[in-house]
């Protein structure tokens, strides 16, 4: 009886963990980071140039990423 109860609780815990792990919508900052990162990858930026580009892209919150301010 104890084993049955333990197995049932274990499966319940696994099920609840799977349900709780559903994807949450990205925040605007996360969306911006994703967009800036994709643009930096498309431009094949590496090292300091990439870091500078991402920094400028993320700081420029008044316009869309990639837009010249």
Mean pLDDT: 80
**Using only CA atoms, what is the Rg?**
22 Å
Terminus-to-terminus distance: 69 Å
**Helix residue percentage:** 55-70%
> Strand count, sense and closure of the main sheet?
none
The oligomerization state is single chain
Element-level helix/strand string: HHH
- What structural class results from the helix and strand content? mainly alpha
Count of separate DSSP helical elements: 3
The global form is rod-shaped
Strand content: under 5%
Total DSSP E strands: 0
Point out poorly predicted stretches.
65-69
Give a brief rundown of this model.
With 69 residues, the chain is mostly helical. It is built from three helices and no strands.
Overview of the structural elements:
The structure is a single chain. With 69 residues, this protein is mainly α. The chain has a domain at 31-60. 68% of the residues lie in helices and 0% in strands. It is built from three helices and no strands. The chain has helices at 2-20, 28-42, 47-59. Helix 2 packs antiparallel against helix 3 (47-59). The longest helix is centred in the first third of the chain and has 19 residues, at 2-20. It is rod-shaped. The N and C termini lie far apart (69 Å).
Defining key terms:
single chain; mainly alpha; 68% helix
Secondary-structure topology with pairs:
Blueprint (H helix, E strand, L loop, with lengths): L1 H19 L7 H15 L4 H13 L10
Helix pairs in contact: 2-3
InterPro entries: P_starv_induced_PsiF
Protein name: Phosphate starvation-inducible protein PsiF
Pfam family, one: PsiF_repeat
